[in-house]
């Protein structure tokens, strides 16, 4: 069943080009308009939405953080992301004009389900993004976009995460189209760029051997930090979570801009720090600022492991190790930059002799609050 892979996790990481491609499949109607899988909300209601709240747990919440950048940029609707377990118990301000987006691979996560119920009681409409057909969260929601990652067996989420991000982009483009923020040809162009991403993920996987070697080499690491900015920030958080879950290493993700507000105090000789570098292109690029961050931590002795786009030479002088990823539009980058971090965590955990498919203390589906 593992198809020649040492564990399900490696298999699922390798299946990611397919998971993203399948999630994008068949999303437009005869007129080229995006469609959701199930829609029990009046389109007029979706046009009048004045706030979006994304609720999810763990890895799914990081997909939600990526979604915030894309949805606000494309749709101009204020978007918050909140952990479902916090949302439910803080008396959140939601009403008929709020659209709640609940992201869940399993569709059975109790924290997320309770948050969905609470939001609907306040009159909000809920769109579920889910990988499991007919599970509880989509059944209790007003609309559904299914991710087509296929069954995810390994406890730690990999391909479902990339599929969730993909579905969030689709939702963002759907809303932008519906609400008239984007012209049809702009949406079509973004869909075309999105359709190129599976091949770009495959390119990352084809060149992954050095990342595996790095994982094996770092098997005795005690602490690893991850820095990212803009959509690279949730990627850093996900990289850290994978390392905690799989390899039981203390790992922390930070927003690169926050470094000087505290975390830089942690930097000492030899400390490994992954940096997810944003694209050097784009109008409001923070690329130069992140390159300065790499320079600052390296000057304090950090071992810098940099994930940067092909052709980005600015990072070369400050990187101890460079992991290259193909060029993508800025907002789509998490679909490629996440992959080396997953492989690194998996390989390191394997080198430690750990069971990567079933890490200690964890369950695939958390059905208690
Ligand atoms: C991390 C992981 C968890 C889940 C979280 C939500 O690798 O798997 O953090 O992402 O428990 O699960 P779902 O998406 O099923 O609601």
Automatic annotation (TrEMBL):
Record GO terms (molecular function): glutamine-fructose-6-phosphate transaminase (isomerizing) activity
Catalytic site positions: 364
EC assignment: 2.6.1.16
EC class of the enzyme, as a word: transferase
Cellular localisation: Cytoplasm
Entry keywords, A to Z: Aminotransferase, Cytoplasm, Glutamine amidotransferase, Repeat, Transferase
Main localization of the protein described in the UniProt heading: cytoplasm
Cytoplasm is among the record's keywords: yes
Domain SIS: 41-181, 214-359
Ion transport found in the keyword field: no
Catalyses which reaction(s): D-fructose 6-phosphate + L-glutamine = D-glucosamine 6-phosphate + L-glutamate
Role of this protein: Catalyzes the first step in hexosamine metabolism, converting fructose-6P into glucosamine-6P using glutamine as a nitrogen source.
Subunit structure: Homodimer.
The protein's name in its UniProt record: Glutamine--fructose-6-phosphate aminotransferase [isomerizing]
Species the sequence originates in: Angustibacter luteus
Gene (name only): glmS
Parent-protein residues present: 250 to 618 of 618
């Amino acid at each position: 069943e593992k198809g020649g892979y040492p564990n399900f996790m490696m298999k699922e990481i390798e299946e990611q080009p397919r998971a993203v491609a399948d999630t994008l499949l068949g999303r437009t109607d005869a007129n080229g308009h995006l469609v959701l899988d199930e829609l029990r909300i009046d389109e007029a209601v979706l046009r009048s939405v004045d706030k979006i709240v994304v609720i999810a747990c763990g890895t799914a919440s990081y997909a939600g953080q990526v979604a915030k950048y894309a949805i606000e940029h494309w749709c101009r609707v204020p978007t918050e992301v909140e952990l479902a377990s916090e949302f439910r118990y803080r008396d959140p301000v939601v009403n008929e004009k709020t659209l709640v987006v609940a992201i869940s691979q399993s569709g059975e996560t109790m924290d997320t389900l309770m948050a969905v119920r609470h939001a609907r009681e306040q009159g909000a409409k809920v769109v579920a993004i889910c990988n499991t057909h007919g599970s509880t969260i989509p059944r209790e929601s007003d609309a559904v976009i299914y991710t087509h990652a296929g069954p995810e067996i390994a406890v730690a989420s990999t391909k479902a995460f990339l599929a969730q991000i993909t579905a969030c982009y689709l939702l963002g483009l759907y809303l932008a189209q519906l609400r008239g923020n984007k012209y049809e040809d702009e949406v079509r162009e973004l869909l075309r760029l999105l359709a190129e991403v599976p091949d770009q993920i495959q390119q990352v996987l084809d060149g992954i051997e050095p990342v595996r070697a790095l994982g094996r080499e770092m098997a005795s690491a005690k602490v690893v930090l991850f820095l990212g900015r803009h959509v690279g920030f949730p990627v850093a958080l996900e990289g850290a979570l994978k390392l905690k879950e799989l390899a039981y290493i203390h790992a922390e993700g930070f927003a690169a801009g926050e470094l000087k507000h505290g975390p830089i105090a942690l930097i000492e000789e030899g400390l490994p720090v992954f940096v997810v570098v944003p694209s050097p292109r784009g109008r409001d690029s923070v690329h130069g600022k992140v390159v300065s961050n790499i320079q600052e931590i390296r000057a304090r002795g950090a071992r810098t492991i940099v994930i940067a786009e092909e052709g980005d030479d600015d990072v070369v002088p400050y990187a101890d190790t460079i992991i290259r990823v193909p060029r993508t539009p800025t907002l789509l980058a998490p679909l490629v930059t996440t992959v080396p971090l997953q492989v690194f965590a998996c390989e390191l955990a394997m080198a430690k002799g750990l069971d990567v498919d079933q890490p200690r203390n964890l369950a695939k589906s958390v059905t208690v609050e």
